Amino acid sequence: MFSALNRFIAARYFGAKRQNGKFLSFIRIMAIGGVAVGSAGLLMALSIVHGFKSVIHNKIMSYGPEIVIQTFSDYPMYRSDTLLTFLSKEAEILAAQPVIESQIMIQIGDRVEGVFLRGLESEDRITKLPEYVKEGGYISVNDEILLGAKLAKNLNATINESAFIYSINGVPSRLNPPDIRKATVHGIYEIGIDKLDEAIVIAPIEWSRKLLNYQPHQIDKVFIKTKPGTDIKAYNALLNDKLPYPMQTESVYETYGSIFAWVNLQEQTIPLVIGVMIIVAAFNLIGTILMMVLERTRDIGILKAMGANDKTIKSIFLIQGSLIAISGLAIGILISYTFFWLQTTYSIIPLPQENYYMSTAPVEPHLMDVFLVSIITFVLSWLASYLPAKVASQIQPLKVIAFGKA
């Protein structure tokens, strides 16, 4: 696109230092710095947003099932064996397991909390909850329970401590006292999301069934894990249509819709806000290139007198704008990847876990982001360089040589 002569002259102008040219060097450095800060800021913001989305998604998927089957009524589902047999024939389902879930009261010492009891099989085939157990161990077939870290803190619970579980069917009275069972705190898990860490007690399904006086095939829910590559939202709707009333399905994106909406809002707005930095930095080039044009006015006159046409002059200053953009982008990418390394290694940006569901800002750089940010920044910088380059091409050589000005 540009001749070798044009590139040579532009490179000489870009790197050469003129006498009394400190101001020009300063604004050139500021222009490069503006592009560098804008591109680095956008890349860092995008990486943090991607990191937030991945961490939140992985935590929810590790704890919550992809699809839940439940009923409209408050009564448990009967004949769960028939339902599980039907689900085992679905090609999209990798695993399905019965679940018992009910409201209970838990007491440890003199502290009492109202929570949900979730009865699960000792071998969890749906979630990765065992990986989040930070103290003790996962539940077995005995009277062992698992508490979330926030709930354990509220109850001042410790491993191997006794707990009393109160369950009531209907309105409590002298004729309808609550069922009480003793259990042992076998483990404490921590997902990092208060909604998940403070409201649920995990217990073996058979022990939960006895507590609630359920029959052998009575359950409250079925947790489903689909095969890799399955469109969860689409299959959730399809399965819902297959099930008889009063059963219904709910995908993880509906159960935790508010959390996913929060993450998506960040992903949509932050790039737009930070992107303004790139636009401002790119259009700062207009002033920078105009200053270069003024500084090189006599040189332009001489070049034109030697036969250089308007296109050549315009090309020289467009190349200078491109060099500033490339230099700024290179520095910006270097800054962003230095930040990625520092954050991954030393966690230089801590976060309050109760607000952000994690203790440190996650980073997940994508090569596609680097490519897109580089292309957009370069194009904006090139467009911003066009106006001063056009001004330079319209300088009249005779006036400049004769009077030292355009």
Write up what this structure looks like.
The two termini are 28 Å apart. The protein has 14 helices and 10 strands. It folds into 2 domains: 4-60 and 259-403, no CATH class; 65-255, no CATH class. The mean pLDDT is 83. With 406 residues, the chain is of the alpha+beta class. The chain is elongated, with a radius of gyration of 33 Å.
Properties at a glance:
6-stranded mixed β-barrel, elongated, 2 domains, 14 helices, alpha+beta, 406 residues, 10 strands
Query: How helical, in percent, are the residues?
Result: 40-55%
Please tell me what the overall shape is.
elongated
Biggest sheet, spatial arrangement of strands? 2-3-8-5-7-6
Beta-strand content bin: 15-25%
N/C terminus separation: 28 Å
Question: H/E element string?
Answer: HHEHEEEEHEEHEHEHEHHHHHHH
**Spans of at least 5 consecutive residues with low confidence:** none
What integer value in Å does the Rg equal? Answer: 33 Å
- Report the total helices: 14
How many structural domains does the protein architecture include? 2
Number of strands: 10
Q: Calculate the mean pLDDT score and round it.
A: 83
Task: Give the biggest beta sheet.
Answer: 6 strands, mixed, barrel
- Oligomeric state of the chains? single chain
Task: State the secondary-structure class.
Answer: alpha+beta
